[in-house]
Amino acid sequence: MSKKDNGATLILSYLNEKNRPYSAQDVFCNLQKQHGLGKTAVVKAMELLALEGKIKEKAYGKQKIYFADQSQFKDVNDADLKAMDRQISELSAEVQSLTQTCRQLDAELKELNSSLTTKEMQSEIQELKAECSGYRGRLEKIKSATNHVTPEEKEKVYKERNVYVKEWKKRKRMASDMMNQILEGYPKSKKEFLDEVGVETDEDCKVVVPST
Predict the structure, then answer these.
(1) Which terminal residue of the chain has fewer beta carbons within 10 Å of its beta carbon, N or C?
(2) pLDDT for the residue numbered 5
(3) What is the rounded CA–CA span in Å between residue 152 and residue 160?
(4) How far apart are CA 163 and CA 171, in angstroms?
């Protein structure tokens, strides 16, 4: 493209090739990115081509539409049109089929990309084997230990725990009852009383009495 024709040769070739109506804005958008044409240059070039009779121009209100001069194309009869329609239908079906195939291949590619490679799989197997070996070692140590707790010893510990928890609850209840009696004649609040006598409650220490 020479600077002298301001893109006119390129635009003429484009309109003849596409053989469909375009506005100057359409042509600018379609050619600007690839060929770097400016909008003003496109408008002037298309107006010049129309003035020279190389393309046709139609005005619709304030907008102008440009298209290739149809006299340069040979006449098409009904048989040719039907043949073109069949070809369009065949090509459309082929495009649809290829599109579907591309989607399937794209899905397969994504699945393969998300899968582990053979090398990664072998590495992961080795890591799992090492992990299993560590677990087996720990299990053997536990089995071979001589300080296992017998069921009888376990039962004894649970019973003692229940005794201590019951005693805890009993003493907590007794202390609460005594404090409530004192507070009946105490002129200050419960918190102030506890602070004065230096008593810390389970709640102060964030301790919860276990269930039995």
Answers:
(1) C
(2) 66
(3) 12
(4) 12
Give the tokens for residue 119: 């090398």
Contact criterion met (CB below 8 Å) for 21 and 66 = yes
Q: At what angle do helices 24-35 and 39-51 cross, to 10 degrees?
A: 120
E strand or H helix that includes residue 153: helix 151-184
**Segment 110-125, tens digit of pLDDT:** 888 888 788 888 899 9
CA of 70: how far to CAs of 27, 42, 56, 66, in Å?
A: 19, 21, 9, 12
Rounded Cα–Cα distance for residues 77 and 74 (Å): 10
Helix (H), strand (E), coil (C) string for 2-35: CCCCCCHHHHHHHHHHHCCCECHHHHHHHHHHHH
Full-model pTM: 0.39
From 13-17, 137-141, 148-152, 167-171, the region with the lowest mean pLDDT: 148-152
